[in-house]
């Protein structure tokens, strides 16, 4: 997924090209920390898993430690394919499967009716969420006019989107079970309007799902996904991550990566890759020279511990580690 895109990606790009007169390109997506999406660093296994998911039209399920780049991959994939910013659904413990597609504001409808202000148009109380919006985006305006109102004269060209279902393991076990039909078929029902939506297969949404493995996912759901576990980056990838985000590889970045790797062995809650990036940003802003030695770095390390240690015991462990580095 670098300069020479795999054949699968080229085919997907060719499929989703909009016809002449299509709207201007969507803005470039960014990773969660604000880095442009092209700055994402992956391993070859993730690239192969993504290509497999695209070739089969199946969701890509990503697991791994928090902060290893699961959510950021959706932004990177959307950037690689020129599909704009991903549509994101942040799963909550109270989420139900229909929330992924749309929400119907029954409370607002009730209060409006009680006050004599209720609209007779049920569409006024509908809001389409990530996967629902992505499916609607595959259809021409004429096919969706009965579902929501666009401005007079508005033009909608069908197009493909990337959808991120983030932290699906936060929801109850019923949530993934209730998607067993909708995800493969790319369709959903709206009982309030007695209507159904089915995505145009030519612009089938690309679904990325993340899980922190707080609870196991049902086997039937797993069979419908392509799976990949993102491992914590090795030394070389950590250096590349800092290099891409900060534009240089020097003694300070090498010190940071070496100490960070030691930290992960002494802390009860090892800091994530995203916390390394945040911590290194603090070190750079402290005025340290690029060729600073360990003696010069230590005071800044002590001051920046709150970015890494989130418990009293981990803070003590890091202070002990720094005292042993001299």
Mean pLDDT: 82
- The total count of helices amounts to 14
**Order of strands side by side in the largest beta sheet?**
2-5-8-1-9
Anisotropy-based shape: elongated
Query: SSE order in H/E notation?
Result: HHEHEEHEHHEHHEEEHEHHHHH
The total number of structural domains is: 2
According to CATH, what is the topology of the largest domain?
Rossmann fold
Write a concise synopsis of the structure shown:
This protein is α/β, with parallel strands linked by helices and 326 residues long.
Detailed description of the structure:
The protein has helices spanning 7-16, 44-56, 70-81, 106-114, 130-136, 141-144, 174-177, 182-185, 219-222, 235-246, 251-266, 273-285, 294-303, 312-324, and strands spanning 60-64, 87-90, 102-104, 126-128, 162-166, 187-190, 195-198, 206-211, 226-230. With 326 residues, it is of the alpha/beta class. It has two domains: 7-230, Rossmann fold (3-Layer(aba) Sandwich), CATH 3.40.50; 235-324. The chain has a five-stranded parallel β-sheet, with helices on both faces. A two-stranded antiparallel sheet has the order 3-4. A hairpin with a 4-residue loop joins strand 6 (187-190) and strand 7 (195-198). It is elongated, with a radius of gyration of 23 Å.
